[in-house]
Specification:
305 residues; alpha/beta; 7-stranded parallel beta sheet; 14 helices; 11 strands; 44% helix
Length: 305
């Protein structure tokens, strides 16, 4: 299974997750959530040559607070673990943890990794405008670094964005910039260099980072260029490729960048028809998403493949 194709960006719409994210509205960030089942999910994976899906619910990390949030995180992680146990050759999972309480985050991470045996963590880029890389997250980052955790990070709406009044869906532009803000903050704050054993997966091809890397790198003359930092310090990007121009841009990136770039479809939100174009465009140029990322290798090791 060393050549297995992993989709590291895929979100099961489990009942606890849907209720916690949408309440009575049935929609999130202006998007109505479609029906979901594990069987349907696997059918789509098979149609598009995907061997393993690493499931995650990272958007909730921004919203979970206090003891109620901790209970929801625990329930979701156990539901994810149950899916993995039911389909061990098809699913792995990243656990969700609270971002408002570092002790609670560490406690849930310990349970998810040591007891549930999940592949890593899945969280959002920020909580209340405080992006990963801020000092308040250091105790949690220190423990992730000690463990060599794989951290899947998904963008959420920035604080200033009004979902109700915007003409443009938050995922079209804001998600791209939010990922860029997160990675930039990690690098320019020195956080990623200090905690260099954490394997970070930044979604959506790294947002606008490939375009803005040089501009960002001059913000601090003492900091190595952001693109080079991302390579050296294990910031890898789950790519959602649907554009020839984007693939051409990536072909100009150094080989190390592309060879560590796993595939991500976010099919539940984007639609199954987009899987064909993104997978075929990327696989015809590189097989970098084949078992890329430490979390994927942990999946292989745990299952003896």
């Amino acid at each position: 299974m060393s050549d297995a194709i992993f989709d590291v960006h895929t979100h099961p719409l489990l009942p606890t997750y849907v209720q916690a994210l949408t309440g009575e509205s049935g929609s999130a960030d202006g998007v109505t959530l479609p029906p979901w089942s594990a069987e349907q999910h696997i059918e789509v994976m098979d149609q598009h040559g995907i061997d393993v899906g690493i499931l995650s619910q990272p958007a909730l990390a921004e919203h979970l607070v206090g003891s109620e949030g901790q209970a929801i995180a625990r329930q979701i992680n156990e539901e994810l673990a149950a899916l993995v146990a039911q389909y061990p050759s098809r699913f792995g999972a990243f656990a969700v943890v609270l971002m408002d309480d570092m002790d609670a985050a560490i406690e849930e991470m310990t349970y998810a990794l040591d007891v549930l045996k999940l592949e890593g963590l899945g969280v959002s880029t920020h909580r209340g405008g405080k992006y990963l890389g801020e000092p308040e997250y250091d105790p949690w980052f220190d423990e992730m670094n000690r463990r060599g955790v794989t951290l899947f990070v998904h963008p959420v709406a920035p604080d200033y964005f009004d979902v109700e009044t915007s003409r443009i869906n938050v995922s079209v532009l804001e998600f791209m910039f939010d990922s860029t803000r997160m990675v930039t903050n990690l690098v320019l704050s020195g956080t990623k260099q200090r905690f260099d054993q954490i394997n970070i997966i930044s979604t959506h091809g790294g947002g606008t980072l490939p375009y803005l890397a040089h501009q960002i790198s001059i913000a601090d003359p003492n900091v190595l260029g952001v693109s080079r930092q991302c390579q050296a310090n294990r910031i890898i990007s789950a790519s959602d490729y649907r554009s020839d121009s984007r693939v051409e841009l990536d072909e100009h990136q150094p080989g190390q960048w592309r060879s560590h770039q796993p595939l991500g479809h976010s099919r539940q939100w984007q639609g199954a028809s987009l899987c064909d174009s993104s997978a075929s465009q990327w696989s015809s140029r590189t097989c970098g998403y084949r078992a890329a990322g430490k979390g994927c290798h942990q999946y292989l090791d745990k299952r003896g493949d």
